[in-house]
Design goal:
6-stranded antiparallel beta sheet; 3-stranded antiparallel beta sheet; Aminoglycoside 3'-phosphotransferase, Chain: A, domain 2; 2 domains; Phosphorylase Kinase, domain 1; single chain; 275 residues; 11 helices; alpha+beta; 43% helix
């Protein structure tokens, strides 16, 4: 069924009134709507996107640290809680409260990881690590071979030595954390993967904004990781090692999508001095 047809069907089925025209994103279609007095978000995921299991991940989280799922429909459609006013955690960083933003992130990690991991239905972080080998086959030379080899080896060693796996959000950065006046900070748009909690921090160390001066500095990385380690009791070395290998993997993903790899490479360089 085409997006437009499915959207019309779900608007009727769930008694929705759209606030504005739907937005087409890299991961599907999103529409802001109302159901009576309730403000909601309607998402129609692209099954080829990296958010194909977002609905299942949100259901696993059960609204603890994340937006709630109100309805599920055909094609993986989701009717979701809408955060109001909905500003992102990025706002705190830009206002000079980076430490506070990192503490908020830690609180959400604690909430999201409360439950035992599901038996199946989600990729493992090892699956994501296959990107290193795909990049080798591409023949691209943007990422130096020495960096790629070290990052892929580090990633493999970490994956093989994981303990206490959880269902991870998988993309828990500042723009995916929104403020709701009633419920506080809430995560949106999970990618969903099984792995250890230390893996979860990497995305936040590559954010926020497109400007690396907000995150890709050794002093910023060091301060954030100290806060995370203190708040969550996670091993500092594993946080940094995961974050470094993920930064190179992020550069790989960017190049696969024909995008600029500078975010990942700059973050990796900032982390390297701490390893």
């Amino acid at each position: 069924m085409l997006y437009d047809e499915l959207l019309e069907e779900l608007v009727r089925r769930w008694g929705l009134e759209l606030d504005e025209l739907p937005l087409r994103t890299l991961s599907g279609l999103i529409a802001f709507a109302r159901r009576g007095a309730e403000e909601v978000v309607l998402k129609l995921p692209d099954h080829e996107s990296d958010e194909a299991v977002a609905g299942a991940a949100l259901l696993h989280f059960q609204g603890q640290g994340s937006v709630r799922v109100f309805e599920r429909g055909p094609g993986g459609a989701l009717l979701l809680e809408r955060a109001r006013p909905g500003h992102a955690l990025t706002k705190l960083v830009i206002e000079g409260a980076d430490d506070q933003a990192t503490v908020v992130l830690c609180a959400l990690v604690r909430e999201l990881h409360r439950r035992e991991p599901p038996d199946g239905g989600f990729p493992a972080v090892e699956d994501w690590g296959r990107g290193f080998e795909r990049y080798r086959r591409m023949g691209d030379k943007t990422i130096p071979v020495a960096l790629l080899d070290w990052a892929s080896g580090l990633f493999a060693d970490l994956a093989a030595s994981q303990a206490d796996r959880r269902l991870l959000h998988g993309d828990l950065h500042h723009d995916n954390i929104l403020f709701d006046v009633s419920r506080g900070w809430l995560a949106i748009d999970p990618k969903g993967a099984l792995g250890e909690p230390a893996y979860e921090i990497g995305a936040a160390l590559r954010n926020p904004t497109e400007d690396p001066t907000w995150f890709a500095r050794t002093s910023i990385v060091d301060r954030r990781v100290r806060i995370v380690s203190d708040c969550l009791g996670l091993d500092r070395r594993r946080i940094l090692a995961w974050a470094y290998s993920q930064a190179i993997l992020s550069a790989v993903w960017s190049l696969e999508d024909q995008l600029d790899a500078k975010r990942g490479l700059a973050t990796a360089e900032a982390i390297l001095a701490l390893l």
